[in-house]
Structure formats: structure tokens, C-alpha cells
Specification:
heterodimer; A: mainly alpha; MetI-like fold; 8 helices; B: mainly alpha; 9 helices; elongated; transport (chain A); transmembrane transporter activity (chain A); membrane (chain A); amino-acid transport (chain A)
Chain lengths: 222, 238
């Protein structure tokens, strides 16, 4: 490696700078995935409800979120959140709220495809049993939709994890920030970025490998 | 709301409005050049992944896709901008714009390669055999039989990848490319009129994304093969 010296990096640096950021990235990914799936499913149900009063706002929200860059959405929330809440909030909390709101739009598209992939007969079967719309959704359709879409949901989660690095725009302390801070302090920014790339790659590559294996395991219910 | 702010001088003799349109130009330039890189490299890698008798080329292209798909775009931009010039001093002369174009182009190429591979493998096997039966070489089979079909059927996912690329160009702010997101951050700081500035920038992104969508839809209509629709790839990606 011409001109690179990775020797500055040891357990000390890792525990002092990187771990804190790593935990935040993982937390952000987990919270945004769970929140995003919950709100995304709600949005998907709104779009499929057939009631205009629910369909239009949900469609507008999803398409709106999907047509602007995530960085801009991060900036928007960081700008407006203090005004809405009435007091300043930290970059980390702002990031969490942003990611839930933003990822909900993407998860909603996945859930919508999942719900639409359920054969109509399943819906009729639920109705024939005398189930209400809510029961039918909860007991028949959504469980199957989740199962069908699990690989895609997980793939989206990996993408989400990569996207968390964009909180760089508002200076939240994530995994990448941890590396770049260590790099600044030790005067080795290039090495720090290279190590960050290796860590992200190792995590995302192994996760996508697991998802691939899972995809082969999950039989499509027919 | 005070939209007058766009008529103020930004301190260098141009108004914020002019600056914003310059920034829009940079956004479109980054996205446009990256699109060319992504399409060329992505198509090549996608084709390599489907070659019948070249296991090493297939492995190479698969490795390419995995490498550029599993590192966040922002980190990849830093790699091009900081790490590579440090390893290869000759690269220090390359302008930042070019580095970002390659970073964004290669990042997107892994996604395009995935779509191209899916499109080729979605074709009926008989198409390839037909090409062989007429005595085409592998090269000719791809050139005259497989690719003209494959590219037409993957148009919808290519459209969404193109829109993703436009949105992803915003990450170039991190290495001070003077594009829309960079403008939004700086103008917000200088004028304290964040809402107006962000609204204008958001509108320009939305307009650009819509334009890309329309152009692709127009070309798609012109090139459609009746009766051939391929399921779009798995969702996701930004």
C-alpha cells in the first residue's frame, strides 16, 4: 500500500471513537426499520383502502418522499424539527425521526406489493369465515405478505444501514463519523476512510449473503 | 415567507437565484456524466455475468457488483476523493468533479449490472439457442438477439435507477461539489432563510426527477415489444 499506514488503528482507537458511532448506526437502523415497517404498512393499507380520503394523502406522501434525495430530507427535518417541537433537538434524535419518516415511504411500496401478491381467494376465504376487514388483514393477509416480502424487507434494511452514513450532513455521530473523527485526531484521514469502507463492506456483504440464503429457504406460499 | 431573498447578492456579484441555477447545472452535469459511466460499465458487467463458458469473467463481474453494492455511496466518494489519490499520487491531478462522476457511476453500475443480468436471464432460453443455430458467435448472439430484447424489457427498472442516480448525486455535497444540496446548505447558512431555500431546491429535484421519468417513459414507449413485460427487480434503493 503506497503511502498508507494502517498501524495507528488499535483497540484503543476503536473503543474510544468508533464503537459509540457503531452503536448509533445500529440503533438508527433498527429503530428506522421497525418504525418504517409499521408506518409503511399503514401507508400501504391507506393506499389500498379504496377510500379517496385515505388514498390521496398517502400516495402524495409516498411519491413526495421518493422523489427527493434523502440528504435533503435529513436537512429539512433538521431545520424544521426545532420549530415544530419548540425546542432544539440533537442531530441524533433528528436523524432517527427523519429515517422513520423517510423509510416508511419505501417500506410502504414493498408492503403494497406484498399485499397485492396475495391471491384474491385468500381475501374471499377470510370474508367467507365472517371476518371483519381488520381481522382479515391481521390474521390472513398481512402475515402472508410479511412472509413473502421478508427477503425484500431485509434487503431494504441493508440499504437503510448504508444510508445511515448520510447523517454526516448534520454531523450526527455515527459509524462513519467515528472513523473520520479518529482519522482527524491521529492525522490519518485516508486510512480511517479506508477502514470505514472495509467495515461497511464486511457488514453489508455478510448480511446480504444471509438474506440470499434465506430467500432460497422461504418457499412462496401458493 | 420572503422570496425576495433570492434576489439578494451572494457576495460575489451574482444573486442567490443565479447561484441556484448554476448549482442545478452542476447537479445535472454530475448526474448526466455518471449515468453514461453507469450504463456503459453496468451493461458490460451485466453481460459478463451471463456468459455461458467463461466462469472467471462471471466471477470477476460478480465481485464487481458485490464490491460496489456493499459500501455506502458517501464512503465510496471519500475513497475516490481521499484514499485513491494518496495511494496513487498521479491521481492528485484529477479534478474533484471527475472523481465524483466515477464514484457515482461505478456505484450505480453495480445496480444496472444487476438489472441487465435479470433482463438477460428472463429471456426464453430458446432465444440464445436460436442465435447459436444460425451460426452466430457469442458476441453476435448478444449483439443481434439477446441485448436488443433484454434492454427493452428492463426499461422500467432502468428508469427508477436513473431517478435514483439523480437523487444520489446530492451526496456530492460532501466533497464540496457546488451542486444543489451544497447550495441549499450554504445559502441556508448565509441567509437564514432555510424554508425558502430548501423549498426551491426540493422543487428543482422533483422537477428533474419527473423530467427523467418522462424522457425514459417516452423512449420506452418507442421501443416496446408487445407481449414482453418483465417483473421489475426487487424494490428498494434510494
Amino acid at each position: 500500500m503506497g503511502g498508507l499506514d494502517l498501524s495507528f488503528f488499535n483497540w484503543d482507537v476503536l473503543s474510544k471513537f468508533v464503537l459509540k458511532g457503531f452503536f448509533f448506526s445500529i440503533q438508527l437502523t433498527a429503530v428506522a426499520t421497525i418504525g418504517g415497517i409499521i408506518f409503511g404498512t399503514l401507508l400501504a393499507l391507506m393506499r389500498l383502502s379504496g377510500k379517496k380520503i385515505l388514498m390521496y394523502p398517502a400516495t402524495f406522501y409516498v411519491n413526495g418522499m421518493r422523489s427527493i434525495p434523502l440528504v435533503m430530507v435529513i436537512l429539512w427535518f433538521f431545520l424544521l424539527m426545532p420549530t415544530i417541537i419548540g425546542r432544539p433537538i440533537g442531530a441524533e434524535l433528528s436523524a432517527v425521526i427523519t429515517f422513520i419518516a423517510f423509510e416508511a415511504a419505501y417500506f410502504s411500496e414493498i408492503m403494497r406489493a406484498g399485499i397485492q401478491s396475495i391471491p384474491r381467494g385468500q381475501v374471499y376465504a377470510g370474508q367467507a369465515m365472517g371476518m371483519t376487514y381488520a381481522q382479515n388483514m391481521k390474521l390472513v393477509i398481512l402475515p402472508q405478505a410479511f412472509r413473502n416480502m421478508l427477503p425484500v424487507l431485509l434487503t431494504q434494511t441493508i440499504i437503510l444501514f448504508q444510508d445511515t452514513s448520510l447523517v454526516y450532513a448534520i454531523g450526527a455521530y455515527d459509524l462513519l463519523k467515528g472513523f473520520s473523527t479518529a482519522g482527524k485526531i491521529y492525522g490519518r484521514p485516508e486510512e480511517a476512510y479506508l477502514l470505514a469502507a472495509i467495515v461497511y463492506f464486511a457488514l453489508c456483504f455478510s448480511l446480504s449473503y444471509v438474506v440470499k440464503k434465506l430467500q432460497l429457504k422461504i418457499a412462496i406460499i401458493r | 415567507m420572503d422570496w425576495q431573498v433570492f434576489l439578494n447578492d451572494d457576495g460575489s456579484g451574482r444573486t442567490y437565484l443565479q447561484w441556484m441555477f448554476d448549482a442545478w447545472g452542476w447537479t445535472l452535469a454530475v448526474a448526466g456524466c455518471s449515468w453514461v459511466v453507469a450504463m456503459v460499465v453496468g451493461s458490460l458487467m451485466g453481460v459478463l455475468r451471463t456468459l455461458p463458458n467463461s466462469p472467471w469473467l462471471v466471477r470477476l463481474a460478480n465481485a464487481w457488483v458485490e464490491l460496489f453494492r456493499n459500501i455506502p455511496l458517501l464512503v465510496q466518494i471519500f475513497l475516490w476523493y481521499f484514499v485513491l489519490p494518496k495511494i496513487f499520487p498521479a491521481m492528485q491531478a484529477v479534478p474533484g468533479f471527475t472523481l465524483v462522476v466515477f464514484a457515482l457511476g461505478f456505484f450505480t453500475s453495480s445496480r444496472i449490472a444487476e438489472q441487465v443480468r435479470a433482463g438477460i436471464q428472463a429471456l426464453p432460453k430458446g432465444q440464445r439457442y436460436a442465435g447459436m443455430a444460425v451460426g452466430f458467435t457469442t458476441m453476435q448472439t448478444y449483439r443481434y438477439v439477446i441485448l436488443p430484447m433484454a434492454f427493452r424489457i428492463i426499461f422500467p427498472p432502468l428508469t427508477s435507477e436513473s431517478m435514483n442516480l439523480l437523487k444520489n448525486s446530492s451526496v456530492a455535497f460532501a466533497v464540496s461539489i457546488s451542486e444543489l444540496t451544497m447550495f441549499a446548505m450554504q445559502a441556508q447558512e448565509e441567509t437564514s432563510r432555510g424554508v425558502e431555500v430548501y423549498l426551491a431546491v426540493t422543487a428543482l429535484y422533483a422537477v428533474s426527477a419527473f423530467a427523467v421519468n418522462r424522457v425514459m417513459a417516452f423512449v420506452e414507449k418507442k421501443m416496446q415489444i408487445p407481449g414482453f413485460i418483465v417483473a421489475t427487480g426487487t424494490g428498494g434503493g434510494h
